[in-house]
Give the backbone structure.
Amino acid sequence: MSYSLYSSLGLNSILSINEYSYTYIKMKVIREFLSTVFIVNDGKVLMTWNKKVKTWVPPGGHIDQNELPCSSVIREAKEESGLDIKLISPFDKSKTGNLVQPIHIHLDHIKDDHKHIDLIYFGVVKDGTLLKESDEQTALRWFSKEELEKENLLPNVKEWALEAINKLGKKY
């Protein structure tokens, strides 16, 4: 019989118990920050094919050291799609805010010792021409609400892609 106990702090404590031994291991958890953007244009949302998870995901990636999350996602959108975007924060009502607020923060469990903290944004096209494929040589595709509902996507990706169209689709 085996049991695992996890701590939400920087180190995970794993206690493994079986009929022969007791083991106590300290495991450092890697937490990386990412930013992704659901880009809406003409009532559709842009997605890129991800080779690792073998499904459609929004443009985005790791936030570089000393880079602001909102700057990171604009850079990633340009690199991956060729599009210049404007971030839209339909939930941020601050009159004094100086950073665009993410619409959501999502924790992805890559492995027991590896987590991605994903700052999710909504955006619209300002300028640029859509590339034929992303900077990682993967497909880019615009999805309508109806196409998203039929597509087998990660649940959080489907949820926020649909929300982006619901919030921005009629206006952009």
